[in-house]
C-alpha cells in the first residue's frame, strides 16, 4: 500500500502531471466562464424579448382604449347633432304653425 501512495506522490510531483492538472483546471474555468456568459446573454435576450412583448401588448391595449374613447366621443357628437336637428325641426314647425 505504501508503494502505491509513494508512486502517486512521485507521479503527482512531475512537471508533466502538474502541467496537465493546470490545463484541466484552466479548461474547467473556461467552461464555467462560457456557461456563465451564455446564461447572461440568454437572460439579456429574454429581458429584451419580454420588453418587446410588453410594449406590443401595451400598444394594443392603448389602441383599443383610444378607439373606444374615439367611438364614445363620436356617439356623443352624433347624439348632440340629432338633438339639435330635432330642436331646429321643432322651431321650424312652430314658426310654420304646425
What does this 3D model show about the protein?
The protein contains 2 helices and no strands. It has 98 residues and is mainly α. It has helices at 2-12, 15-95. It has one domain (2-95). 94% of the residues lie in helices and 0% in strands.
Task: Pick out its properties.
98 residues, mainly alpha, 2 helices
Shape: rod-shaped
From the alpha carbons, calculate the radius of gyration and give it in angstroms.
Answer: 41 Å
User: What's the end-to-end separation, in Å?
Assistant: 128 Å
Largest sheet: none
Q: Uncertain spans, ≥5 residues at pLDDT below 50?
A: none
The helix tally amounts to 2
Tell me the number of structural domains: 1
In short:
This protein is mostly helical and 98 residues long. Helix content is 94%, strand content 0%.
Question: Topology, pairings included?
Answer:
Blueprint: H1 2-12, H2 15-95
